[in-house]
Hints:
Four copies of one chain form a homotetramer. Helices cover about 25% and strands about 25% of the residues of chain A. The first copy, chain A, is α+β, with helices and mostly antiparallel strands. In chain A, a hairpin with a 2-residue loop joins strand 5 and strand 6 (about 75). In chain A, helix 1 (about 35-45) packs across helix 3 (about 130-145), helix 3 crosses helix 8 (about 330-355) and helix 5 (about 225-235) packs antiparallel against helix 8.
Amino acid sequence: MNTFGQIFRLTSFGESHGVALGGVIDGMPAGIDVDLELLDKEMARRRPGQSLLTTPRKEADQVEILSGVFEGKTTGCPIGFMVRNTSQHSSDYDNLRDLFRPSHADFTYFSKYGIRDHRGGGRSSARETVARCVGGAFAKMALAKLGIEVKAFTRQVGTVSLDGTYRDYDLSLTESNDVRCPDVAKAAEMAALIKEVKGVGDTIGGVISCVISGCPVGLGDPVFGRLQSRLAGAMMSINAVKGFEYGLGFEGAKGRGSEQNDVFTTDDGGRIVTLTNRSGGIQGGISNGQDIYFNVAFKPVATLLRDQQTVDLQGRPVEFKARGRHDACVLPRAVPIVEAMAAMVILDSYLINKTVKL
Amino acid sequence: MNTFGQIFRLTSFGESHGVALGGVIDGMPAGIDVDLELLDKEMARRRPGQSLLTTPRKEADQVEILSGVFEGKTTGCPIGFMVRNTSQHSSDYDNLRDLFRPSHADFTYFSKYGIRDHRGGGRSSARETVARCVGGAFAKMALAKLGIEVKAFTRQVGTVSLDGTYRDYDLSLTESNDVRCPDVAKAAEMAALIKEVKGVGDTIGGVISCVISGCPVGLGDPVFGRLQSRLAGAMMSINAVKGFEYGLGFEGAKGRGSEQNDVFTTDDGGRIVTLTNRSGGIQGGISNGQDIYFNVAFKPVATLLRDQQTVDLQGRPVEFKARGRHDACVLPRAVPIVEAMAAMVILDSYLINKTVKL
Amino acid sequence: MNTFGQIFRLTSFGESHGVALGGVIDGMPAGIDVDLELLDKEMARRRPGQSLLTTPRKEADQVEILSGVFEGKTTGCPIGFMVRNTSQHSSDYDNLRDLFRPSHADFTYFSKYGIRDHRGGGRSSARETVARCVGGAFAKMALAKLGIEVKAFTRQVGTVSLDGTYRDYDLSLTESNDVRCPDVAKAAEMAALIKEVKGVGDTIGGVISCVISGCPVGLGDPVFGRLQSRLAGAMMSINAVKGFEYGLGFEGAKGRGSEQNDVFTTDDGGRIVTLTNRSGGIQGGISNGQDIYFNVAFKPVATLLRDQQTVDLQGRPVEFKARGRHDACVLPRAVPIVEAMAAMVILDSYLINKTVKL
Amino acid sequence: MNTFGQIFRLTSFGESHGVALGGVIDGMPAGIDVDLELLDKEMARRRPGQSLLTTPRKEADQVEILSGVFEGKTTGCPIGFMVRNTSQHSSDYDNLRDLFRPSHADFTYFSKYGIRDHRGGGRSSARETVARCVGGAFAKMALAKLGIEVKAFTRQVGTVSLDGTYRDYDLSLTESNDVRCPDVAKAAEMAALIKEVKGVGDTIGGVISCVISGCPVGLGDPVFGRLQSRLAGAMMSINAVKGFEYGLGFEGAKGRGSEQNDVFTTDDGGRIVTLTNRSGGIQGGISNGQDIYFNVAFKPVATLLRDQQTVDLQGRPVEFKARGRHDACVLPRAVPIVEAMAAMVILDSYLINKTVKL
């Protein structure tokens, strides 16, 4: 299933070392101004080689829009797009052709399909997220017209973590450092940790937080289409993600109802709001107009620049060492991907919500 | 969206105090023996009033199978089913008609639809999970033929928590106590905590763990259909769930790749397996043949048997107190629901996986 | 696949001689007045035994609404409904248990599923259309608010056929006779033919025409979601249907473009309209505001009250004779079914169309 | 909705005069040899300018495969593909920018989206069928392994029509002439008619027949997923198609059941077969192992090389004359498109059918 969404739908294609990656955005509302600067910015945020903290791979990642845009506006027709693979060092993977790297998708893909493109992980490569960033950029163009903003940031790298909630930080500082953490001091600690880990050929995990503000009441559907269900499904589909929580999340599971209910009141404009927002902006699966916020846990990536044990296609033990250019920590580059997936979920839910009344 | 799944699909309907709840199971494989005892057992596990720990509501919850079964076997045609509502005390909710209970779905439903059935929460009631348990029971009937087992248990209630992994417990003890915790001593602590909380009209959250064993290699799809994506979407669609993690989850986000990779080896039969299973049985979104395990966080339910502040439909402040029969902790009754959703995801993924080769 | 539609979705279940038939209507807009009289009327039009022309089977077909309606209005939540089977003579089918009736679904169902409910054709029975009529009635309730009307009528029975287009008849006369033909003289001819055919244990086919008026511009989508695609898929899913055409249809395939183009002009209100409507109200897959009209061809039903040759489950030749109560011509009772399917397609397309702009 | 199919899915994009057309084929079975010759052949059959009967437009239509193929085999991952637009004369359409051509999609697209790409009809252009031919070619690669063949041919142009059924002709002659009609003499008549019509700037309609042989028993699903439903939906989604019928179709609607039932018998191998095949290879919505055959009616295309009346965007009357290079009769080039859509439906149904048993 390479299609995501119900009304606003992204279908993606492409392998790490194939000819190109790309996709089709279907259900994009018509008449939206296409903001190419925004698209470039999102691609740049995802791009490898953007800082010393990330992989030194250089990928131009020039997005070519193939359809669905006319004289600077979306037409409501599907937007085909493509990014050519230009900087692939496929020979880096020659030694991996006949073995299964630990905690990678090599074994499961080969078992499932009976064939796999071993170069750079093929379809299982995080390079696939290029398509998500393009889809997310278009979703953001529509959300901007609705006054909805999606902002993610790095909350934790290894054991270095922010203590406060998103409200305790100035999120405009997120892009001020390579880690994408709005607490500049913590960011420096995180960066130091990433460099240390990288120096020993290891990798490190972490947590990204995301906040959606300006979201109207009513997005999400009862039962299986709950907004948190869509967000969790979206986030868990990102490479290396192992956990999702919203509102008080796992921490809230320890507490009592009397401490967690959000009391309703009215704001100065007479609008019904909640005094607190422990619910995370969603009640009964439907947005309540407050900020939606959630955390996404990333495991340390499996590619180590060290000798590792594994087996070959026949199950015989072999030792290998990964070559090539890899991230020691994916968090900084995953921030725009979390935003992209969230933006697509919100726009899709917004469009679906238009159909509940005549 | 009241349909769940792609090939094996459950469509559910019904409100807490309406005529009936029920659903349609579509895509159930043909020729499976219908195990009515299993169905009854699953319904009994979900049923209110089963112990002192749960709501004293008595619901007969007799499932009537309306179609799709012929001479004790499934026919491949859709299975319609229904459970009549017989024990509803709708008048318990008369005082809630014109107000929005804190942290319930009252406000969001009313805002979204312009109308709501206020009785017992209407569609947003956890009574809706009756349909999930029926769907899950049928999924389990098919999984049993495949040697796949789904077992959930209560891991945590409030701050009382198991310390070990699922392998440290004898899961056959799960049903030996009302809390559904395989550690009998901890179960007693949890039960005491629930009773204490209940005594003061409060509620308490917790965590349920689930293990899927016997799962073949190959379930789940690349990119958006990752198995963890489907599981997370399924779990987050359950009432009161706030978080999902699999494998090492949030804890693993703190660590390094060198500590977390699962090295491949072969077992006595020459089958490729992993030495450890920190991945949680899924790699690249596809099951690798090891146990799949995950945690689900539940918030404390919002219905308190205490005076609470809120607003009415016009936004005017009001005080109210919930009446009726409610769970102080949903965990014990949510264990079968977690299993039901997991069983449906696994069967669906199994059927989808049949289509990847000619 | 027992679900029909994308936003407005009907999921149906039930076999001819099972416990009940029914379904779930999902995506029904909220706040629509539920017109139970309309529902009863549609069910009565479909009901067997309504006239001498149809099967003498008596089926009460009392629809029980199980959810989704509160105080006379739709709530936006799924509408579960059910019709119990009460008048089944299952023993009429005992002699068919071990054989495959010619041109029925017996052989294909048994081959596909390895099991079949032989009683009354099981799931393949036209009795399944009960669910469609309920779905269609709810769709009509919504369409009525939009000023959209769906009217079908019997155009042809065997070789007795109307010559004119729908505009040449007063469609309010359709229900004035048992055949549901707006030309009362032709209706009498058709009725006579049906009686004659019935008298010799035979059956007869025909054509139903349908007109959708008041449809706004813009329903239907480019490429695969063309409105004619949805209508054709819907009609071809009705039992015994063998053909679909809209606008000039097969007749138009003989002609030239210069004779068939519909020239644009403006009406008195300045609205852009077409001078003629050979296109059948759809251009480029999207409604153009003119009447949508189409024809549906029905084969003569396969159940003959005569001796017939066939084979048993082992392929051995056997002779059999159907027992029971059957229609010699399904056209009169299929008129409301064609309307129901068309109404669901139009409402679904209307709701989808709400999502093409922000 | 620019995605077609349930398991085998084609998502298409592109406008007539945009940068490129293309699509994504998802759900292609893994391990299938990619037959590039077949792909080229199918593209050549669809290509404009292939004979004097078709438009003189020259389109290279070089398909570039971007992903999903590794070392000559499909990998089970999505196949992205693209055809650049190279021969577009967009200025041919400058005079059409501000008016609505009769019986084209100009008016409906503009009304629906509030914007349209007027060049060459934009998304509504039949050039979009490039993507269908690519999808169909891949489907045929898989079907070839299953021994399933899809063959279409021109049955009728204007009033020149074949009289026999497909069994009366040698379908290997279909490609022997420019009309793609297996009756060479009739083909000459048809060709003469097309030239005559073209000479006067007019266009002409017709009928294409299609036969699917070698199809196993069991494809298609009860109720809404009937095989004829999927085929009809597929065919009606092709530009200019106005009608669909299978088996005896509209002609059969005139007759009696006693003349049309297909009696079961066994063949020399003991396999259950039908003596006749009036049903068209489908019973109860499911293939019965006999040939599946159907007809598709095409209207004469709307683009005339003559002066025509219409209105501009403001509804003011204007006269215009189309420029450029257009087909006077689309039938010859639509033959491979009918095959492509049929091939995709059959492969999709084959894959779905794998899921009905464990």
